[in-house]
């Protein structure tokens, strides 16, 4: 049997080889990492003693944790299986493991190489070097049970809160800080690194960018620790919508006016309505891939089913005291401008919508910082990531899709203010910049 055929069960207990959920009598738990394996799908299943001992209590090591055989003819154990939620992060984690296992490097050199790797200035090792380093790690007898948190030691911690950084920002000198901590530091007028006093460029101080590689590494560390401990995966949110159809449908009456009064269909993702940022694979039990940048839907109803933008009609999703989670670019106001990586977006309100005049695009009063507009201002002040979807209804933009609705990733609101628009009334205008954490 091929080496890659040995795969464990995923987080839901489904065998990754036969795609079925084994019974308790057919499930083996590794005593080292706690990963469940389907007994019938193992290339060399262990001998089960005929006794009253439950199969779950048998001391057995999976192929990922068992030592490398001394016989060269015997096939080595398969590499550790990393879930689809990791994506391209598996290479990054393996590269960090290789650096930690290199005994020829001193701690300073290891820290320097880790920083180069996470900042994108160093390439991960080749597959041959990666396999060699991983084998040396296994032979050396790693006692941490595959805990990836051991790879993220104190050198990665934020110097202010002394924790693994939340939305990490990496300075040119190689030190990491939480985005919130970094912004608080530079807003005090300090233009040097808090750890080594190196000069921080003015552009970075005004527009810090999140280190997406370190975000992926920290996320992988948390997932690995949760899986190795055998704990139940965290349930983020659950939508009680089993009675709804899989696909949104429209009545004959609704077809005349769009889909405003149609059935919205099931919500397939497990994120709450106030979820900021991208929708990851762990929140997508239906496909186990998350909502990817560039994903298209037929209309706003179908876009709602995947949580990218929940309102059917409104262009802003958010709460005035909490922040905005997503916006839809659909050409609602004349002052809107779309330049791809940045765009100028007009807030909501300023029109008389009484009596079904929803096609009236003439401004009749000023927009104010309340309701959804206030939610945009909160997200601007706090630097929250906001999901952006573009609709084919925006005819003036070269970046709008030809049909349907498209998810275009995570943006950040750079500036938010009021000014007189083209129709002589005050508008709430916001400038949006593309974030570096597009997922």
Strand content: 5-15%
**Separation of the first and last Cα atoms:** 36 Å
Order of SSEs: EEHHHEEHHHHEHEEEEHEEE
Assembly status:
single chain
Give helix % range: 10-25%
Low-confidence runs (pLDDT<50, min 5 residues)?
1-5, 68-89, 123-127, 130-148
**Number of helical elements:** 9
Beta strand count: 12
Structural class: alpha+beta
Overall 3D form: flat
Radius of gyration over all CA atoms, rounded: 26 Å
Which whole number gives the mean pLDDT? 74
Explain the overall architecture.
By secondary structure, the protein is of the alpha+beta class. It has helices spanning 89-101, 107-118, 127-139, 179-187, 202-206, 212-228, 252-256, 300-305, 372-382; strands at residues 27-29, 36-38, 168-170, 176-178, 296-297, 316-319, 323-329, 337-338, 342-346, 386-391, 405-420, 426-434. Strands 5, 6, 7, 8, 9, 10, 11 and 12 form an eight-stranded mixed β-sheet that branches. Strands 1-2 form a two-stranded antiparallel ribbon. A two-stranded antiparallel ribbon has the order 3-4. Strand 3 and strand 4 form a beta hairpin. The two termini are 36 Å apart. Mean pLDDT is 74; it is low at 1-5, 68-89, 123-127 and 130-148.
Main attributes of the structure:
439 residues; eight-stranded mixed beta sheet; 21% helix; 14% strand
Protein topology:
Elements (H helix, E strand, L loop, with lengths): L26 E3 L6 E3 L50 H13 L5 H12 L8 H13 L28 E3 L5 E3 H9 L14 H5 L5 H17 L23 H5 L39 E2 L2 H6 L10 E4 L3 E7 L7 E2 L3 E5 L25 H11 L3 E6 L13 E16 L5 E9 L5
Parallel strand pairs: 7-10
Antiparallel strand pairs: 1-2, 3-4, 5-11, 6-7, 8-9, 9-12, 10-11, 11-12
Helix pairs in contact: 1-2, 1-3, 1-6
